[in-house]
């Protein structure tokens, strides 16, 4: 079988994936006050991984990212639900969020919120599910 | 605020997610699934005690108050249903341990089962109509996978139809929600009830109500049940038993909730329409049950008859009718799971579901036979068993409203149900014993325990009705007086 | 604007219904997808189309858009995405196992 000529997509992907990853993380953190958040950040992150799938082989990517995405999704949902359960322990309604301002060494005065933990959960769940869907369709020939 | 209200939803989802992580460890999965259903029952029992002493319990998620935030509301009606749900699902789980097979077990059977329960419990508890949609979808997505789990040819063929029907009905649900939001500007049940009472339930509002009725009818199998016999007879016994016991009941719950809390101003239009649909459903279901000679088909058509009968009580819209509907709903959840498990055991033993090829089972399996007999009597409402009281009250309710035709059809179809189920008993258990112990396709080892529990439950529910009478009365009182629900959710002076 | 959107919703519904009534599974899935977009558009139209800023903390606006239909929409899109993906995977499985994607040949009630 002839090797496909895919120099362009390979070189573009190597750069683009890094940019998309950075952008995804930016989207994720901006979600606290502006448009963005765990769902969109997770989707952007997943799109970068799917680009990797397209360019290189699924096998290659799987070898380099040895994560079971179904487990990743489950862990994500678990994190999101458990932050809600955390509120029950403080006798507040389920899913109550709280935040505070802390003086961190480098960042100076920073707002830390429990909503971010919830969003991390959502993000992981979205990444896990979307990659699982793509893999279950694309992985078979 | 009461965090107990959320527990029936988060216990199964946390347990399910842990199971997905430990996919290989089947013993842990079995233990966790049993543990979580028992934990839900305990939490719900506590909830029922609190409701009976302190009234309807609510929880505003994240502290965002109704009608702005997401609220969870547990009144006696939903608490009773959740308790029955967890008992029935425990029995189906016990049955699944010995019958579902290793391949399905390792392919996420237990997590999916728990997600299904999450969806069902969530639908019972939610306080706004959009989250009803969300929990419906959680339940349906789990059921899509469960129905196709194992990928046999029949299952795949039926699951495609099932999914398509449900996707379309979900879209109709969204359309109805959009119209409702445009007209009232809110989606919280209590707030909706107030707003609809304010503007009056005129023609347009009644049209939206009927659109909701169509959506819920598709889910409940009320008249629009054409998808039900095929899809409920395709999956393995434990799965079809939980479907028969729970899925249609969630649709019935939604009809009862929406048409007693929000759209109750025009019973002569909406409730009469429910009554007509219920009558047609009962007739068609009973004809199907009588006509078929296939165990699984007879049982699925009996599910349809049950749906029609419960909603006949709702259609009467009287205290008696509602009491009857609630009694019969509880009875129906238990008895449908029981009868499906029994039918599945017969199919499992003989390897065929064609009634004419089975006979004389009672010599080899007397226990199974007598339990089937009890279940058959209970299904058709013979006095000391659990179906009787519901039948009495529903008939009384329909006669009181003047819907004599509806009550009459209900009683006639009861006889047809009795005939259809006795047909299974007489053909399957009496007669010449063809099978010998060696020729059987399976054993009843471990399968009789959950069946026994459910049989005892249906006897106990019939004999000990006095015990639950007080709780059912509280539930029905809450259903007939929407102001209780509104007050519990929005506070005593709803200014908005 | 609302009238225009309603007409568009109607067109989308018509296309979706037509596709669902065809025989090929893939077209049926596309039909449900288009129907889903129609429903989403309907929700946002029914919420009232008006000008206004997003109801976010960092932005100073005098008027705000109604955020509830948008929240509903986002949820509906996510659910629609999930069910469509599941439907697609399942139809693919069905196609591989049953060897056909013609709904005409998926009829019948008996076991094979």
TrEMBL record, chain A:
Residue stretches making up the Na+/H+ antiporter MnhB subunit-related protein domain: 8-131
Domain of life: Bacteria
NCBIfam families recorded: PRK12573.1 (NF009223)
Ranges that cross the membrane: 12-31, 37-59, 71-92, 112-137
Topological type in the membrane: Multi-pass membrane protein
UniProt-listed InterPro entries: CPA3_antiporter_subunitB (IPR050622), MnhB (IPR007182)
Compartments reported by the entry: Cell membrane
Keyword Cell membrane applies: yes
GO CC terms: plasma membrane
Record carries keyword RNA-binding: no
Keywords in alphabetical order: Cell membrane, Membrane, Transmembrane, Transmembrane helix
Name of the protein in question: Na(+)/H(+) antiporter subunit B
Principal cellular location given in the protein's record: membrane
Taxonomic source organism: Neobacillus vireti LMG 21834
Protein family: Belongs to the CPA3 antiporters (TC 2.A.63) subunit B family.
UniProtKB/TrEMBL annotation, chain B:
Keyword Nuclease: no
Biological process per Gene Ontology, one example term: ATP synthesis coupled electron transport
Pfam families: Proton_antipo_M
Ranges where the NADH:quinone oxidoreductase/Mrp antiporter transmembrane domain occurs: 128-416
Signal peptide: none
TM spans (from-to): 6-22, 31-52, 72-95, 107-126, 132-150, 162-183, 203-228, 240-264, 270-292, 299-319, 325-349, 361-382, 402-426, 447-472
UniProt keyword annotation of Ribosomal protein present: no
Keywords: Antiport, Cell membrane, Membrane, Transmembrane, Transmembrane helix, Transport
Subcellular localization, as worded in the UniProt entry: Cell membrane; Membrane
MF (Gene Ontology): antiporter activity; NADH dehydrogenase (ubiquinone) activity
PANTHER family hit by this protein: NA(+)_H(+) ANTIPORTER SUBUNIT D1, NADH DEHYDROGENASE
Protein name: Monovalent cation/H+ antiporter subunit D
Organism of this sequence: Neobacillus vireti LMG 21834
Automatic annotation (TrEMBL), chain C:
Main location: membrane
The protein's name in its UniProt record: Monovalent cation/H+ antiporter subunit C
Keywords of this entry: Cell membrane, Membrane, Transmembrane, Transmembrane helix
Keyword match Transport: no
KW Membrane (keyword) present: yes
InterPro entries: CPA3_antiporter_subunitC (IPR050601), NUOK/Mnh_C1-like (IPR039428)
Similarity annotation: Belongs to the CPA3 antiporters (TC 2.A.63) subunit C family.
Any single Gene Ontology cellular-component annotation: plasma membrane
Taxonomic superkingdom: Bacteria
Entry's transmembrane regions: 6-21, 28-49, 69-90
UniProt cross-references to Gene3D superfamilies, sorted A to Z: 1.10.287.3510
Cellular compartments annotated: Cell membrane
Membrane topology (UniProt): Multi-pass membrane protein
Organism: Neobacillus vireti LMG 21834
């Amino acid at each position: 079988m002839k090797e496909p000529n895919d120099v362009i997509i390979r070189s573009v992907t190597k750069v683009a994936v890094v940019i998309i990853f950075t952008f995804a993380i930016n989207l994720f953190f901006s979600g606290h006050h502006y448009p963005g958040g765990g769902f969109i950040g997770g989707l952007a992150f997943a799109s970068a991984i799917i680009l990797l799938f397209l360019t290189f082989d699924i096998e290659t990517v799987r070898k380099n990212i040895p994560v079971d995405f179904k487990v990743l999704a489950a862990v994500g949902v678990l994190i999101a639900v458990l932050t809600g359960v955390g509120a029950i322990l403080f006798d507040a309604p389920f899913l109550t969020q709280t935040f505070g301002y802390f003086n961190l060494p480098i960042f100076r005065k920073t707002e830390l919120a429990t909503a971010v933990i919830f969003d991390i959960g959502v993000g992981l769940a979205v990444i896990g599910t979307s990659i699982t869907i793509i893999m279950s369709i694309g992985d078979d020939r | 605020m009461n965090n107990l209200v959320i527990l029936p939803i988060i216990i199964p989802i946390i347990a399910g997610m842990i199971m997905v992580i430990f996919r290989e460890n089947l013993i842990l999965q079995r233990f966790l699934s049993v543990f979580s259903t028992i934990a839900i029952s305990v939490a719900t029992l506590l909830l029922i005690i609190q409701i009976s002493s302190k009234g309807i319990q609510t929880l505003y998620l994240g502290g965002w108050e109704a009608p702005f935030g997401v609220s969870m509301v547990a009144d006696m009606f939903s608490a009773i249903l959740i308790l029955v749900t967890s008992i029935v699902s425990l029995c189906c789980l016990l049955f699944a341990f010995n019958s579902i097979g290793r391949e399905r077990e390792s392919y996420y059977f237990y997590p999916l089962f728990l997600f299904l329960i999450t969806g069902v419990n969530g639908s019972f508890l939610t306080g706004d109509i959009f989250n009803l949609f969300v929990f419906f979808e959680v339940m349906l997505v789990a059921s899509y996978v469960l129905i196709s789990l194992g990928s046999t040819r029949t299952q795949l063929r039926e699951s495609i139809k099932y999914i398509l029907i449900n996707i379309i009905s979900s879209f109709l649900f969204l359309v109805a929600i959009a119209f409702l939001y445009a007209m009232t500007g809110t989606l919280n049940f209590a707030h909706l009830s107030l707003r609809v009472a304010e503007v009056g339930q005129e023609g347009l509002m009644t049209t939206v109500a009927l659109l909701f009725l169509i959506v819920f009818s598709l889910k409940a199998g009320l008249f629009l049940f054409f998808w039900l016999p095929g899809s409920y007879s395709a999956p393995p016994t434990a799965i079809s038993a939980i479907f028969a016991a729970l899925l249609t009941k969630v649709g019935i719950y939604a009809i009862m909730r929406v048409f007693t809390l929000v759209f109750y101003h025009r019973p002569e239009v909406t409730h009469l329409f429910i009554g007509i649909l219920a009558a047609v459903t009962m007739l068609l279901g009973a004809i199907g049950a009588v006509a078929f000679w296939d165990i699984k088909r007879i049982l699925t058509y009996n599910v349809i008859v049950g749906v029609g009968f419960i909603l006949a009580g709702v259609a009467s819209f009287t205290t008696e009718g509602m009491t009857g509907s609630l009694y019969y709903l509880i009875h129906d959840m238990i008895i449908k799971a029981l009868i499906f498990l029994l039918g599945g055991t017969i199919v499992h033993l003989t390897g065929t579901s064609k009634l004419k090829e089975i006979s004389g089972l009672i010599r080899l399996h007397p226990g199974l036979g007598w339990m089937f007999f009890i279940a058959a009597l209970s299904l058709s409402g013979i006095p000391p068993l659990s179906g009787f009281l519901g039948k009495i009250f529903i008939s009384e309710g329909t006669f009181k409203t003047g819907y004599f035709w509806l009550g009459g059809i209900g009683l006639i179809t009861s006889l047809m149900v009795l005939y259809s189920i006795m047909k299974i008993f007489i053909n399957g258990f009496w007669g010449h014993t063809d099978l010998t112990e060696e020729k059987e396709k399976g054993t009843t080892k471990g399968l009789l325990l959950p069946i026994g529990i459910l049989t005892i439950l249906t006897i106990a529910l019939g004999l000990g009705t006095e015990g639950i009478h007080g709780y059912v009365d509280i539930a029905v009182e809450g259903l007939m007086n929407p102001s209780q629900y509104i007050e519990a959710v929005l506070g005593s002076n709803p200014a908005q | 604007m609302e009238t225009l959107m309603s007409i568009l919703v109607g067109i989308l519904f018509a296309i979706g219904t037509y596709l669902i009534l065809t025989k090929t599974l893939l077209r049926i899935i596309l039909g449900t997808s288009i129907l889903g977009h129609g429903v989403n558009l309907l929700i946002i139209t029914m919420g009232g189309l008006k000008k206004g800023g997003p109801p976010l903390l960092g932005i100073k606006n005098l008027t705000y858009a109604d955020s509830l239909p948008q929240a509903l929409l986002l949820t509906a899109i996510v659910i629609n995405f999930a069910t469509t993906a599941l439907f697609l995977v399942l139809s693919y499985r069905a196609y591989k196992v049953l060897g056909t994607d013609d709904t005409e040949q998926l009829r019948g009630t008996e076991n094979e």
